[in-house]
Structure formats: C-alpha cells, structure tokens
Specification:
140 residues, mainly beta, 4-stranded antiparallel sheet
Length: 140
C-alpha cells in the first residue's frame, strides 16, 4: 500500500465577475426593472495586497456590462480578504458620477465556486454590481 502520492504543485488562480450599469440612462440594452443600462467597455481592476506582495489585473466589460477578470499568475499568496475590485470611471461621457460604490471605493469579493481550469484550479468570486449615473439626466 504505502503512502499516497503527494499532490503536484497546484496553480491556484482567481476569477472575479461583476456587472457595470448606468442608472437612469436608456442606452442600448436598457432594463426597465433596473432603470439601468449595461455599460460596455468599462475597465475593471482586481487589486490584491498581502504585506509586500501585490497583484493588479485589469479586465473590461462586454456589451452586457459583464466582466470576468482572470489572474494568469499564481494567486496563492492572496485570499479574498486581500482583494477588492474597482471600476475607476465610466466609459460613457453622460454617465460619469459613481453611485455604487462611491468614487474610488472598491467592492470585496464573495466566493461562488471552485472551477477546474487547464493546469489548476480557479476560485471564482463575485464582486457584484457597480453603478454610475448622469450628473444631469438631460445629458444621457
């Protein structure tokens, strides 16, 4: 029988998903129940810090306002409490005011599932929704 084989080096990465909205403006994809439109091409930033170690990975939203940021590097030194997601600004000139979270605020990660990826395992997290709004509704 003997001892079991040791686990090979496991590459653990992080994947974070979320959505970016424009509240109040009726852009393409407007959803009446949310009174919001998805913002395409919004930049999203995953930033993790643990002591002297840091990692930043950018992603962008698709036409539905959805983003999935995936770390390509080893992310094992970080846990969800070390990381936040930021959407620094809106790509829509008429929808620039940060509503949720506020300006320069990030959202924490919420664990969703482990996903098997080629060569390793990914912890999949949700950041939630980011919302911007126009400073003047007539500028939508």
């Amino acid at each position: 029988m003997g001892m079991p084989r040791p686990q090979p080096n496991l590459n653990f990465t992080i994947g974070v998903e979320g959505v970016v909205w424009c509240k109040g403006c009726r852009y393409h994809g407007y959803i009446p129940s949310r009174d919001a439109s998805p913002l395409r091409n919004a930049s999203a930033l995953l930033r993790c810090r643990n002591g002297r170690r840091a990692m930043s990975v950018w992603g962008a939203t698709n036409s539905r306002g959805y983003f999935l940021i995936q770390t390509g590097a080893q992310a094992a030194p970080f846990t969800s409490r070390h990381c936040k997601v930021y959407v620094p600004r809106s790509p829509a000139s008429g929808c620039r005011a940060a509503v949720s979270p506020g300006r320069n605020k990030g959202l924490p990660l919420r664990f969703r599932a482990f996903v098997t990826r080629p060569g390793g395992v990914q912890g999949r997290y949700a950041a939630g929704s980011f919302a911007f709004a126009p400073q003047d509704l007539s500028k939508c």
